[in-house]
């Protein structure tokens, strides 16, 4: 399985509609792959909030309107913040059947002032939503648990935020591109859900991403997917006792590494779902890059910076790119492919041959890991 | 409450009857003691949680399972909370949220109410209506009474609505459920009444109720204008004929301990609350709430406050305490 074309939109508020954003990303990915839509056999669409925030479901048929007469199978997939990763995973599976497919994800988050409520819909209706567990609150409970267990501090989380903003400042598609976010700004930002501050949280944004995926390698720019795994867990936040011990993440990671016949030590660049800054640290551990509690040391020592031993989120991550929910998982895989192609410009990581993208649906529930090779 | 397999100890938070792995029956686990493992103070309002700040607790129960709960009270990590508050006084209104199971919610209400002091000879009348109430709640109520020592022969169901259609429907529903089919169904309005004087007023009360030990009312929540709050009358509709106007006043003025009525227990189903204002604007509010209390005026007062409806003038001197809220924030809308 190969990624042969990709396109990520400029993340940030846009006047484009969701279908326009998605269509534009599709056109970009086709152009990058030097293909026409008629070369594509199926499309996988990821979106999370269009139904609840804009009363537009059935996005497969919506997109079909851009390709009259083609009657392509277009599949809609939704898995909260993990929908993009699930779409890529499903596309991988489908390449046993098709030769060439397209994945696209998009989210229009500037459409409603009620996004905190709509996104809360990704958590359990009774156990989480009605208990006021909006997403930053869930991130905060995970943060508190992690701090108690491993002695992490708010300063450590600020270091994650700072690193990702430094990277995002070099990524023209990032929401925070060109914005110089300082440690002072991060540490003085207002508390959203204690202990998390505004700059510990990823920003709602508009955005879309698309990739062409093929069964065979076509050009030297084709990037191989050597591991694709997806694992689920119950949706309610508290059922697993310890929010820092994510079994679904461990399962998806071990499956993907086994498929790739690699270990975490073989990975040279990673995009790790950082909806909230502590989550990047917690997931580094759950993905087995380091032992429990050791990610704190990693961030303090700069090991995950762009020039460190394992650059994490060279794109800026969800923190600085912004998090258009349905697009994020595809953007992460596209970033790793871009890095492995050596086309990441100012944010390019040196000499990366293999990379990993980890996408998470809600703070518990869906974990998707992709491992890519040059 | 959650569900645990008796064989493999696997745990479910959604109601389930049998283990999906070993097909053994599951037991219901009702935790009562919780330790706060983490908490967050939420500063950002959202559509369903507009009042900020509030706190979300991550709780570990006595069996090691964890839960999240919203609260407006201030707590520290490491503190414990017990969910065993029995009704402290006659004015206590117990409220609980329904999550995924009505059984679970009813269970918690009865647990927080504490023992009902039922003996096997206790005569119990349930005033309900199969026309506007959920028979599932009636089943849970009767089940609870039987488990607490009541005898089928001593439980009478009174239909709140006097018309034949309601009685026919009630008969059919009771006959269809094994737990209800043996119970006697009566229409109190049709029954002989006896006139009892009390504090210079006369009360007509169905003879059958005289000598009963417990009268339980089961009503859906319907709140009307300040002029005439439907709750006061609806609790006891079917017991007192013509309960409007001056009769309503008489009933509302009855002290808690009175020789007219048996001991009362009021169960209110607020899942679909019908609310009208002075201009006759009707709204239906969906909540996930059940209420239980002993004093119907305290309950009415509490409902008016929670649902932001001006209270009936007859409730001016009533008081209530809301219980169960330490652990289960009751807000409107929920
Ligand atoms: Zn079992």
TrEMBL record, chain A:
Q: Where is the Thiolase C-terminal domain?
A: 231-373
**SUPFAM superfamilies from the xrefs?**
Thiolase-like
Q: Which residues form the Thiolase N-terminal domain?
A: 13-213
- The lineage's top-level taxon is Bacteria
An MF annotation (GO) of this entry? acyltransferase activity, transferring groups other than amino-acyl groups
A Pfam family per the record: Thiolase_N
Recorded hits in Gene3D superfamilies, A to Z, give:
3.40.47.10
Annotated protein name in UniProt: Acetyl-CoA acetyltransferase
What organism does the record attribute this protein to?
Candidatus Wirthbacteria bacterium CG2_30_54_11
From TrEMBL, chain B:
Per its UniProt entry, which superkingdom is the organism in? Bacteria
This protein's name: DUF362 domain-containing protein
| The species this protein was found in | Candidatus Wirthbacteria bacterium CG2_30_54_11
């Amino acid at each position: 399985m190969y990624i042969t074309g990709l396109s990520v939109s400029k993340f940030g508020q846009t006047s484009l509609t969701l279908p326009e954003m998605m269509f534009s990303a599709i056109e970009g990915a086709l152009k990058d792959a030097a293909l026409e839509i008629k070369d594509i056999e199926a499309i996988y669409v990821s979106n999370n909030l269009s139904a609840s925030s804009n009363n537009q479901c059935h996005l497969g048929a919506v997109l079909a309107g851009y390709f009259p007469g083609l009657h392509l199978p277009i599949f809609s997939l939704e898995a909260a913040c993990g929908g993009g990763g699930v779409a890529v995973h499903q596309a991988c599976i489908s390449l046993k059947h098709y030769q060439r497919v397209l994945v696209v994800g998009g989210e229009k988050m500037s459409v409603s002032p009620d996004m905190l409520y709509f996104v809360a819909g990704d958590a359990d209706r009774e156990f989480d939503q009605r208990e006021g567990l909006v997403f930053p609150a869930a991130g905060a409970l995970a943060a508190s648990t992690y701090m108690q267990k491993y002695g992490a501090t708010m300063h450590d989380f600020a270091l994650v935020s700072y690193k990702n903003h430094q990277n995002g400042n070099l990524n023209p598609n990032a929401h925070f591109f060109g914005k110089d976010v300082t440690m002072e700004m991060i540490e003085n930002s207002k508390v959203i859900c204690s202990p998390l501050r505004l700059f510990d949280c990823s920003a709602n944004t508009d955005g879309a991403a698309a990739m062409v995926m093929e069964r065979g390698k076509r050009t030297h720019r084709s990037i191989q997917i050597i591991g694709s795994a997806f694992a689920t867990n119950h949706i309610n936040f508290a059922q697993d006792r310890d929010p820092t011990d994510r079994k679904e993440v461990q399962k998806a990671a071990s499956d993907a590494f086994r498929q790739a016949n690699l270990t975490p030590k073989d990975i040279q660049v990673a995009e790790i779902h950082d909806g909230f800054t502590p989550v990047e640290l917690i997931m580094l551990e759950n993905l087995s890059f380091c032992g429990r509690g050791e990610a704190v040391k990693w961030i303090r020592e700069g090991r995950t910076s762009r020039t460190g031993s394992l650059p994490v989120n060279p794109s800026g991550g969800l923190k600085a790119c912004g998090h258009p929910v349905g697009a994020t998982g595809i953007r992460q895989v596209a970033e790793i492919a871009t890095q492995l192609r050596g086309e990441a410009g100012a944010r390019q990581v040196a000499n990366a041959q293999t990379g990993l993208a980890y996408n998470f649906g809600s703070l518990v529930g869906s974990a998707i890991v992709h491992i890519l090779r040059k | 409450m959650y569900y645990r397999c008796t064989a493999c100890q696997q745990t479910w938070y959604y109601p389930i009857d049998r283990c999906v792995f070993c097909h053994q029956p599951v037991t219901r686990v009702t935790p009562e003691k919780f330790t706060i493992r983490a908490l967050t103070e939420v500063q950002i309002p959202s559509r369903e949680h507009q009042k900020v700040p509030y706190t979300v607790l991550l709780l570990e129960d006595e069996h090691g399972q964890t839960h999240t709960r919203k609260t407006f009270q201030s707590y520290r990590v490491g503190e414990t909370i017990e969910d065993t508050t029995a009704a402290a006084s006659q004015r206590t209104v117990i409220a609980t949220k329904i999550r995924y199971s009505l059984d679970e919610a009813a269970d918690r209400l009865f647990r927080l109410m504490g023992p009902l002091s039922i003996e096997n000879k206790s005569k119990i009348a349930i005033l309900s209506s199969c026309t506007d109430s959920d028979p599932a709640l009636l089943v849970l109520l009767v089940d609870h009474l039987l488990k607490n020592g009541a005898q089928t022969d001593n439980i009478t169901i009174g239909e709140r609505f006097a018309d034949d259609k309601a009685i026919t429907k009630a008969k059919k529903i009771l006959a269809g459920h094994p737990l209800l089919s043996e119970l006697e169904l009566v229409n109190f309005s049709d029954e002989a009444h006896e006139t009892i004087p009390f504090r210079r007023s006369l009360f007509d009360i169905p003879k059958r109720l005289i000598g009963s030990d417990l009268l339980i009312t089961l009503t859906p929540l319907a709140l009307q204008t300040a002029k005439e709050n439907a709750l006061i009358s609806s609790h006891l509709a079917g017991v007192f004929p013509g309960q409007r106007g001056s009769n309503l006043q008489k009933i509302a003025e009855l002290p808690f301990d009175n020789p007219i009525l048996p001991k009362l227990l009021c169960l209110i189903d607020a899942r679909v609350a019908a609310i009208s204002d002075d201009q006759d604007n009707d709204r239906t509010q969906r909540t996930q709430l059940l209420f239980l209390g002993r004093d119907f005026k305290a309950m009415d007062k509490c409902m008016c406050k929670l649902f932001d409806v001006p209270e009936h003038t007859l409730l001016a001197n009533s008081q209530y305490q809301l219980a169960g809220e330490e652990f289960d924030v009751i807000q409107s809308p929920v």
